[in-house]
């Protein structure tokens, strides 16, 4: 037959623009070309479509790739537009490209193909952030700083212990993202609309050509399933939430003069000449909002969707793209801010005893001498009250001990022992339980963190 007779498949009427995802599909333009190529190569190998027709289709796809997404004809989505462009070049036989498949399995394959790349990028950013944390931590194993609960001075710790607390969480984020990657990395192609196909296709072959680890077996699950998107977005939102905590800590520490953020990660005010603001980290903190919003938008769109394909899915996907972009960028920026920040050792050491943060250590010393911990706690609570939140002197401690215990403090612990407990550096050094802030305990955590990154 000569000439191509096609009705305009994409009518859409007045809702044409509303229905089209072509612009948003730029993100999966390259993926769709890869999927088209793998599919037609398999069709040729299986003798479903003649080799020469497949050759022409492949040549047309090369031209379409070179012309770029912007040169595509109008269409309901990128899949339809590319098919139209193939038919424009090859003629009616170009329509054989869509044998034994549907846009439903096609789009699911494209999303997984592209998301794999994006997940790898987010994993790389997360690992780079962990490297930055470990590098700075290694320099500050002995740098004592105040540790907080309820934003109030609680117990002295070290900069390394603080930074590695985030590294540990980001290591778990990495594992979650890798897990999401594994389940994303399966091919739905060949599921067709949802009900398979009578053609003698080879799903394993297209999966292999596209670099997937295998297929999503059930064809209805393959077309309809988007839990891989939910899982990936949830892993990113979880990561962004912890990241926002790190950003918040750094904003607060910068405010107290406990950390000096590099100028390139700070900004000035357009009106107040004296200001240097931690805007970059405030934006990192805000990205958790984007990520949780993306996850919420995605899950809400997916909720209640019946099998097998519903067009709602077209609006689900962009939530995941927005999330992965925002979170990967924020992670990379946070890595730079961490790597370039300075920790002023003297200021931190001076601040680390503020608010009688060594009280627990004195109570521990009493408890080690046989006083029940609850009683020791009472002694130190009374001392804290008497010293009005500051660190009490030895005379005050002794007087309070006399009131509560009926005996001098120094019948239980030596003066030297009490003085050591009141010294933030020695206080930290004494807390050498596994995972604690003492330098040798942190050295073990550093080793584990380094081993986890390799
Ligand atoms: N663009 C659609 C999506 O992103 C795929 C089109 C499938 N359309 C359909 N009517 N079955 O989900």
TrEMBL record:
Enzyme's top EC category: lyase
Compartment(s) where it occurs, according to its Swiss-Prot or TrEMBL record: Cytoplasm
GO molecular function: argininosuccinate lyase activity
Biological process per Gene Ontology, one example term: L-arginine biosynthetic process via ornithine
Enzyme Commission number, as recorded: 4.3.2.1
Pathway annotation: Amino-acid biosynthesis; L-arginine biosynthesis; L-arginine from L-ornithine and carbamoyl phosphate: step 3/3
UniProt main location, coarse: cytoplasm
InterPro entries: Arg_succ_lyase_C, Argininosuccinate_lyase, Fumarase/histidase_N, Fumarate_lyase_fam, Fumarate_lyase_N, L-Aspartase-like
Residue span, Fumarate lyase N-terminal domain: 43-293
UniProt entry tagged with the keyword Amino-acid biosynthesis: yes
Reactions that this protein is recorded to catalyse: 2-(N(omega)-L-arginino)succinate = fumarate + L-arginine
SUPFAM superfamilies: L-aspartase-like
Stretches assigned to the Argininosuccinate lyase C-terminal domain: 356-429
Annotated keywords: Amino-acid biosynthesis, Arginine biosynthesis, Cytoplasm, Lyase
Family, as annotated: Belongs to the lyase 1 family. Argininosuccinate lyase subfamily.
NCBIfam families (alphabetical): argH
Protein name listed in UniProt: Argininosuccinate lyase
Organism: Halobellus limi
Classification of source organism: Archaea, Methanobacteriati, Methanobacteriota, Stenosarchaea group, Halobacteria
């Amino acid at each position: 037959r000569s000439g191509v007779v096609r009705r305009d498949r994409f009518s859409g009427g007045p809702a044409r623009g509303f229905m089209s995802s072509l612009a948003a599909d730029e993100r999966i333009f390259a993926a769709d070309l890869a999927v088209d190529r793998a599919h037609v190569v398999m069709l040729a190998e299986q003798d479903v479509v003649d080799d020469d027709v497949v050759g022409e289709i492949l040549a047309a796809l090369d031209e379409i790739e070179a012309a770029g997404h912007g040169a595509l004809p109008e269409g309901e989505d990128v899949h339809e537009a590319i098919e139209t462009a193939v038919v424009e070049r090859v003629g009616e036989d170009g329509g054989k490209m869509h044998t034994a498949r549907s846009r439903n399995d096609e789009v699911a394959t494209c999303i997984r193909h592209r998301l794999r790349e994006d997940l790898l990028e987010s994993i790389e950013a997360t690992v780079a952030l962990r490297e930055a944390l470990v590098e700075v931590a290694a320099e500050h194993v002995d740098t004592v700083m105040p540790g907080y609960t309820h934003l109030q001075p609680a117990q002295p710790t070290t900069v390394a212990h603080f930074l590695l607390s985030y590294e540990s969480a980001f290591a778990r984020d990495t594992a979650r993202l890798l897990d999401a990657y594994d389940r994303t990395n399966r091919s739905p192609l060949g599921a067709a609309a949802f009900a398979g196909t009578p053609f003698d296709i080879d799903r394993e072959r297209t999966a292999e050509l596209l670099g997937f680890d295998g297929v999503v077996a059930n064809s209805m699950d393959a077309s309809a399933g988007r839990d891989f998107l939910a899982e990936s977005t949830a892993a990113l939102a979880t990561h962004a939430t912890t990241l926002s905590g790190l950003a918040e800590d750094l904003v607060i520490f910068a405010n107290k003069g406990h950390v000096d953020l590099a100028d390139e990660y700070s900004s000035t005010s357009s009106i107040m000449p004296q200001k240097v603001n931690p805007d970059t980290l405030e934006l990192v903190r805000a990205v958790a909002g984007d990520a949780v919003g993306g996850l919420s938008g995605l899950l809400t769109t997916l909720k209640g969707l019946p099998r097998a394909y519903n067009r709602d899915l077209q609006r689900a996907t962009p939530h995941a793209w927005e999330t992965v972009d925002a979170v990967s960028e924020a992670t990379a920026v946070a890595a730079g801010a961490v790597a370039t920040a300075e920790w002023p050792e003297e200021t931190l050491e001076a601040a680390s005893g503020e608010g009688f943060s060594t009280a627990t250590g004195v109570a521990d010393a009493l408890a080690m001498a046989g006083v029940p911990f609850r009683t020791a706690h009472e002694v130190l609570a009374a001392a804290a009250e008497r010293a009005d939140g500051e660190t009490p002197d030895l005379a005050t401690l002794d007087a309070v001990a006399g009131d509560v215990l009926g005996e001098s403090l120094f019948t239980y612990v030596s003066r030297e022992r009490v003085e050591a407990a009141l010294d933030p550096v020695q206080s930290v050094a004494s807390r050498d339980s596994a995972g604690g802030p003492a330098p040798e305990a942190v050295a073990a955590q550093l080793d584990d963190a380094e081993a986890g990154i390799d």
